[in-house]
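Intended use. Records such as the MBL fold metallo-hydrolase entry shown here are meant for training and evaluating sequence-to-structure methods. They are not intended to support clinical decisions.
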Amino acid sequence: MHTAWEEAGWERLGDGVARRRMPGWDETIGVVAGSAGVLIIDTGATLRDGADLRRAIRGVLGRDVTHVALTHPHFDHVMGTAAFSGVQVFGAAGLDELLRREQDGLRRDAVGHGVDPVAAAEAADILVSPHHLVHGELTLDLGDRQVLLANVGPGHTAHDLAVLVPGRHGSPEIVFCGDLVEESGAPSVGPDALPHQWPAALDRLLALGGEDARYVPGHGAVVDARFVRDQRAALAARFGTAPG
Protein backbone atom coordinates (compact mmCIF):
# COMPACT_ATOMS: atom_id res chain seq x y z
CA MET A 1 0.00 0.00 0.00
CA HIS A 2 1.45 3.38 -1.04
CA THR A 3 1.76 6.16 1.51
CA ALA A 4 0.84 9.76 0.80
CA TRP A 5 4.54 10.50 0.29
CA GLU A 6 4.94 7.78 -2.31
CA GLU A 7 1.77 8.82 -4.12
CA ALA A 8 3.25 12.32 -4.37
CA GLY A 9 6.50 10.99 -5.88
CA TRP A 10 8.66 10.87 -2.75
CA GLU A 11 10.52 7.94 -1.19
CA ARG A 12 9.36 7.34 2.38
CA LEU A 13 12.33 6.61 4.66
CA GLY A 14 10.60 6.41 8.03
CA ASP A 15 7.84 7.89 10.17
CA GLY A 16 7.55 11.49 8.98
CA VAL A 17 10.77 11.26 6.94
CA ALA A 18 10.96 11.21 3.15
CA ARG A 19 13.18 12.28 0.29
CA ARG A 20 12.95 13.08 -3.40
CA ARG A 21 15.63 12.58 -6.04
CA MET A 22 15.30 15.60 -8.28
CA PRO A 23 15.33 15.39 -12.08
CA GLY A 24 18.34 16.77 -13.89
CA TRP A 25 21.15 16.50 -11.33
CA ASP A 26 19.67 13.73 -9.14
CA GLU A 27 20.23 15.77 -5.99
CA THR A 28 18.40 14.50 -2.93
CA ILE A 29 15.88 16.70 -1.12
CA GLY A 30 14.90 15.51 2.36
CA VAL A 31 11.93 16.33 4.57
CA VAL A 32 11.37 15.65 8.27
CA ALA A 33 7.96 16.36 9.79
CA GLY A 34 7.26 16.87 13.49
CA SER A 35 4.13 17.97 15.29
CA ALA A 36 5.25 21.60 15.44
CA GLY A 37 7.62 22.00 12.52
CA VAL A 38 8.72 20.73 9.11
CA LEU A 39 12.35 20.66 8.00
CA ILE A 40 13.46 20.53 4.37
CA ILE A 41 17.02 19.48 3.63
CA ASP A 42 18.32 21.36 0.56
CA THR A 43 16.09 23.27 -1.84
CA GLY A 44 16.95 22.42 -5.46
CA ALA A 45 18.62 24.28 -8.31
CA THR A 46 16.09 27.03 -9.10
CA LEU A 47 13.30 29.06 -7.55
CA ARG A 48 10.85 26.92 -9.49
CA ASP A 49 12.33 23.81 -7.86
CA GLY A 50 11.92 25.40 -4.45
CA ALA A 51 8.34 26.46 -5.13
CA ASP A 52 7.44 23.00 -6.47
CA LEU A 53 8.94 21.37 -3.39
CA ARG A 54 7.10 23.70 -1.05
CA ARG A 55 3.77 22.95 -2.75
CA ALA A 56 4.44 19.22 -2.77
CA ILE A 57 5.23 19.11 0.95
CA ARG A 58 2.18 21.20 1.78
CA GLY A 59 0.10 18.84 -0.35
CA VAL A 60 1.16 15.82 1.71
CA LEU A 61 1.29 17.37 5.17
CA GLY A 62 -1.30 20.13 4.91
CA ARG A 63 1.17 22.64 6.36
CA ASP A 64 4.25 24.58 5.37
CA VAL A 65 7.97 24.07 5.81
CA THR A 66 9.31 25.93 8.88
CA HIS A 67 13.06 25.16 8.68
CA VAL A 68 15.63 24.72 5.92
CA ALA A 69 19.00 22.96 6.34
CA LEU A 70 21.56 23.46 3.58
CA THR A 71 24.09 20.63 3.36
CA HIS A 72 26.68 22.53 1.27
CA PRO A 73 27.01 25.50 -1.08
CA HIS A 74 26.50 24.00 -4.54
CA PHE A 75 23.87 25.41 -6.91
CA ASP A 76 21.72 22.27 -7.09
CA HIS A 77 21.30 22.24 -3.31
CA VAL A 78 20.80 25.94 -2.42
CA MET A 79 19.35 27.96 -5.31
CA GLY A 80 15.71 27.24 -4.45
CA THR A 81 15.88 28.59 -0.91
CA ALA A 82 14.23 31.95 -1.64
CA ALA A 83 11.00 30.10 -2.46
CA PHE A 84 10.71 29.37 1.28
CA SER A 85 9.99 32.92 2.47
CA GLY A 86 9.74 33.40 6.20
CA VAL A 87 11.51 30.11 6.95
CA GLN A 88 14.50 29.75 9.28
CA VAL A 89 17.61 28.66 7.31
CA PHE A 90 20.53 26.73 8.83
CA GLY A 91 23.97 26.00 7.44
CA ALA A 92 27.52 25.20 8.46
CA ALA A 93 29.60 28.02 9.93
CA GLY A 94 30.92 30.28 7.18
CA LEU A 95 28.25 29.33 4.66
CA ASP A 96 26.57 32.74 5.00
CA GLU A 97 29.68 34.66 3.97
CA LEU A 98 30.47 32.25 1.14
CA LEU A 99 26.99 32.50 -0.40
CA ARG A 100 27.07 36.29 -0.25
CA ARG A 101 30.52 36.33 -1.83
CA GLU A 102 29.90 33.68 -4.49
CA GLN A 103 26.49 34.63 -5.87
CA ASP A 104 27.86 35.19 -9.37
CA GLY A 105 29.99 32.05 -9.18
CA LEU A 106 26.93 29.99 -8.31
CA ARG A 107 25.03 31.53 -11.22
CA ARG A 108 27.84 30.69 -13.64
CA ASP A 109 28.11 27.16 -12.28
CA ALA A 110 24.36 26.63 -12.63
CA VAL A 111 24.36 27.88 -16.24
CA GLY A 112 27.41 25.76 -17.01
CA HIS A 113 25.49 22.70 -15.83
CA GLY A 114 22.45 23.49 -17.98
CA VAL A 115 20.21 25.70 -15.84
CA ASP A 116 18.36 28.29 -17.90
CA PRO A 117 20.37 31.54 -17.66
CA VAL A 118 17.34 33.64 -16.71
CA ALA A 119 16.32 31.17 -13.98
CA ALA A 120 19.91 31.02 -12.69
CA ALA A 121 20.22 34.82 -12.55
CA GLU A 122 16.85 35.15 -10.79
CA ALA A 123 17.83 32.62 -8.11
CA ALA A 124 21.31 34.11 -7.62
CA ASP A 125 19.95 37.65 -7.26
CA ILE A 126 17.84 36.69 -4.24
CA LEU A 127 20.00 33.88 -2.87
CA VAL A 128 19.27 33.34 0.82
CA SER A 129 22.14 33.00 3.29
CA PRO A 130 21.64 30.98 6.49
CA HIS A 131 20.17 32.79 9.47
CA HIS A 132 21.65 30.24 11.88
CA LEU A 133 25.19 28.85 11.67
CA VAL A 134 26.21 25.44 13.01
CA HIS A 135 29.73 25.32 14.45
CA GLY A 136 29.55 21.88 16.05
CA GLU A 137 26.12 20.40 16.61
CA LEU A 138 22.71 22.01 16.94
CA THR A 139 19.38 20.41 17.85
CA LEU A 140 16.20 21.48 16.10
CA ASP A 141 12.96 20.93 18.00
CA LEU A 142 10.15 20.06 15.60
CA GLY A 143 7.66 19.35 18.38
CA ASP A 144 7.43 15.65 19.01
CA ARG A 145 10.82 14.99 17.48
CA GLN A 146 14.28 16.49 17.58
CA VAL A 147 16.71 16.54 14.67
CA LEU A 148 20.46 17.04 15.01
CA LEU A 149 22.39 19.26 12.60
CA ALA A 150 26.13 18.47 12.62
CA ASN A 151 28.98 20.39 11.02
CA VAL A 152 31.02 17.32 10.04
CA GLY A 153 33.18 18.82 7.28
CA PRO A 154 35.27 20.04 5.67
CA GLY A 155 35.40 17.47 2.90
CA HIS A 156 33.28 17.79 -0.23
CA THR A 157 33.36 21.54 0.51
CA ALA A 158 34.51 23.71 3.40
CA HIS A 159 30.91 23.89 4.68
CA ASP A 160 29.44 20.37 4.90
CA LEU A 161 26.42 19.86 7.14
CA ALA A 162 24.85 16.48 7.98
CA VAL A 163 21.37 15.93 9.41
CA LEU A 164 20.67 13.09 11.87
CA VAL A 165 17.07 11.97 12.33
CA PRO A 166 16.85 9.67 15.37
CA GLY A 167 14.97 6.41 14.88
CA ARG A 168 11.47 5.82 16.19
CA HIS A 169 9.74 2.68 17.42
CA GLY A 170 12.79 0.53 16.71
CA SER A 171 13.51 2.02 13.28
CA PRO A 172 17.12 2.96 12.46
CA GLU A 173 18.62 6.42 12.53
CA ILE A 174 18.61 8.27 9.20
CA VAL A 175 21.55 10.47 8.21
CA PHE A 176 21.28 12.96 5.36
CA CYS A 177 24.87 13.24 4.16
CA GLY A 178 24.82 15.87 1.44
CA ASP A 179 27.52 15.23 -1.14
CA LEU A 180 29.97 13.87 1.41
CA VAL A 181 28.52 10.56 0.19
CA GLU A 182 27.44 9.81 -3.39
CA GLU A 183 26.05 6.50 -4.59
CA SER A 184 25.21 7.15 -8.24
CA GLY A 185 28.84 7.82 -9.13
CA ALA A 186 32.24 8.51 -7.65
CA PRO A 187 32.32 11.43 -5.18
CA SER A 188 32.62 14.76 -6.98
CA VAL A 189 35.97 16.31 -6.09
CA GLY A 190 35.65 19.87 -7.37
CA PRO A 191 37.93 22.88 -6.96
CA ASP A 192 36.34 23.73 -3.60
CA ALA A 193 36.80 20.22 -2.16
CA LEU A 194 39.28 19.45 0.61
CA PRO A 195 40.06 15.85 -0.34
CA HIS A 196 42.77 15.27 2.27
CA GLN A 197 40.26 16.12 5.01
CA TRP A 198 37.32 14.28 3.44
CA PRO A 199 38.04 10.83 4.98
CA ALA A 200 38.03 12.39 8.46
CA ALA A 201 34.66 13.99 7.67
CA LEU A 202 33.31 10.54 6.81
CA ASP A 203 34.68 9.23 10.11
CA ARG A 204 32.64 11.92 11.87
CA LEU A 205 29.61 11.04 9.78
CA LEU A 206 29.88 7.36 10.73
CA ALA A 207 30.31 8.25 14.40
CA LEU A 208 27.19 10.38 14.16
CA GLY A 209 24.96 7.72 12.63
CA GLY A 210 26.48 4.49 13.87
CA GLU A 211 26.64 1.07 12.31
CA ASP A 212 22.90 0.51 11.84
CA ALA A 213 21.89 3.89 10.40
CA ARG A 214 20.56 4.47 6.91
CA TYR A 215 22.77 6.98 5.10
CA VAL A 216 21.13 9.20 2.46
CA PRO A 217 23.65 10.44 -0.13
CA GLY A 218 23.43 13.77 -1.88
CA HIS A 219 23.05 11.80 -5.13
CA GLY A 220 21.93 8.20 -5.51
CA ALA A 221 20.28 5.42 -3.53
CA VAL A 222 20.20 5.10 0.26
CA VAL A 223 23.26 3.20 1.56
CA ASP A 224 24.56 1.59 4.75
CA ALA A 225 27.59 2.17 6.95
CA ARG A 226 29.67 -0.33 4.99
CA PHE A 227 29.19 1.69 1.80
CA VAL A 228 30.31 4.86 3.60
CA ARG A 229 33.38 3.09 4.97
CA ASP A 230 34.25 1.79 1.49
CA GLN A 231 33.92 5.27 0.03
CA ARG A 232 36.07 6.61 2.85
CA ALA A 233 38.76 4.03 2.08
CA ALA A 234 38.67 4.85 -1.64
CA LEU A 235 39.09 8.57 -0.96
CA ALA A 236 41.93 7.90 1.49
CA ALA A 237 43.72 5.72 -1.04
CA ARG A 238 43.18 8.22 -3.86
CA PHE A 239 44.48 11.23 -1.95
CA GLY A 240 47.10 9.59 0.23
CA THR A 241 45.47 10.04 3.61
CA ALA A 242 45.70 7.48 6.37
CA PRO A 243 43.26 4.56 6.30
CA GLY A 244 40.59 4.43 9.00
